[in-house]
Amino acid sequence: MANRTRSQYLLEAYFGTIWDQERIEMAAALLHLGRTGDDPSAIPALLYVLNSDKDSDLRLAIVELLHARRVREAVPDLAKALFDADGRVRSLAAEALAEYADPRLLASALPALLQALSDPATRDSAQAAVKTISGKSADKITPAERERLRIGDSAQAIWRERFAPPADGTGA
Questions:
Q1: Disulfide-capable partner of 34 in 27, 42, 72, 170 (CB 3.0 to 4.6 Å)?
Q2: Are 68 and 40 within 8 A, CB to CB?
Q3: Which residues does 3 contact at the CB level (< 8 Å), separation at least 6?
Q4: Cα(101)–Cα(26) distance, rounded to whole angstroms?
Q5: How many Cα atoms are found within 13 Å in the side-chain-facing hemisphere of 82?
Q6: pLDDT tens digits, the chain, 172 residues: what are they?
């Protein structure tokens, strides 16, 4: 109990309150810890709040923070945010994903990014992220590859199979 962080206490308080104002204050304190980087457990706590809170302004603030800090472990949660009820959250999540430069990091988000192409709020950024992963635009990904993604094959395995350079370094 003595080893608990401020973020853990705040997250417990966040879920322990029934009052919206107190919940927002706890989340604001978590956001502050996430911005300063003082508490490494703030990011996992914020990801939990992102996936569970009903307040779209709070979700947007969390996505803004994740975007600004380019938090690597946030990629799956940002991919999930591509389907948020609020268009602002969807759009910023797509923007955040598009700014990651590591295709291997983004590969797990490929199925969500391909789905996000149909949403005007996310289309352009999702297209950029797909291009980062595959090296080609989304319309160049074959229907067979899309179907494999749809039925649950690993996006990372598909990326390695189709787009990654050969392990022997020959480039062929």
A1: 42
A2: no
A3: none
A4: 33
A5: 30
A6: 446 676 766 766 666 665 677 777 777 777 877 788 777 888 988 899 899 888 898 899 999 999 999 999 999 999 999 999 999 999 999 999 999 988 888 888 888 998 999 999 999 999 999 888 877 777 887 777 666 655 444 555 555 555 555 555 554 4
